[in-house]
Amino acid sequence: MSSAIAGQGLRGREKLARIPVKVRDDVASAVKPAWLRGRDQDTPAVRALQDVLREHSLHTVCEEAACPNIGECFSRGTATFMILGAICTRRCPFCDVSHGRPLPPDAGEPERLARTVAAMKLRYVVITSVDRDDLRDGGAAHFAQCMADIRALSPGITIEVLTPDFRGREAAALDALAVSPPDVFNHNTETVPRLYREVRPGADYAGSLRLIRDFASRFPGVPTKTGLMLGLGETFDEVVEVMRDLRAHDCDLLTLGQYLRPSPAHLPVIEYITQARFDALREQALALGFSEVAAGPLVRSSYRADQLHDAYAEHG
Fold this sequence. Notes:
The chain is α/β, with parallel strands linked by helices and 316 residues long. The chain has helices at residues 12-16, 44-55, 61-64, 70-75, 109-119, 140-153, 170-177, 196-199, 205-218, 236-248, 275-288, 305-315; strands at 9-10, 78-83, 87-88, 98-100, 124-129, 158-162, 184-186, 224-230, 253-258, 292-295. The strands form two sheets. The chain has a seven-stranded parallel sheet, sandwiched between helices.
């Protein structure tokens, strides 16, 4: 990465050329079922909020990832923003974000984000980022500044962060977040441990569990959350075992959704999971003690984030 030009990212096959387990791009995904379709993605409410975003030169993950739930979430007054640029220091083969040498953090981004959130009249906001292994705290101080600026302009708003794993920088990251802690801490576990080397090269399953546990210990009363993608070849029992691990590491909230292949260069979809299996996994998770679980083919990390937060507040 040192020889890369800052600000220029690689995608697709170029991005994934150096991962340890090569993607078989000659392997077709399972046939996409007719019932797996998005809804309400182009409504007047969505277009109005998109106009506000363009005015402030910001983009949401909801748009960038073509999230199937954008209409529902925007109409509920929730949105997910990606900070710290659009170039990631990792090469995950499930993700379409570009890889390369990121630019330095934009010092004006927190204030610009805060003004956008206020203009959109959001009541619940999720802030996420690419992996920033080039920064001493993994970008956590930038998260904290964004939260402080948002709260200054939007008193009473609820803020969830969806963070990287801060690999090797966990202590510095938690110190930075202590300046302005979130209302919900979310870090995605993504998949089962057997598939980590293939799906999350550069990440560590045990490390993600520790981050969730350490945050919960450092900030008692702030709910912790994680998400898993299904359909990559995991078994039902493997998912249940991950859920047990998460509860043992003080994770309170959970999202389960279907993995969708961004391009033929990415990992194939091994299986499309039925709603019945999602429902069965949700029941297992609730029985294990999660405060709330969102589970379904179209569920993403931030889906109905406000409702999951409210469920924790009521039952947590």
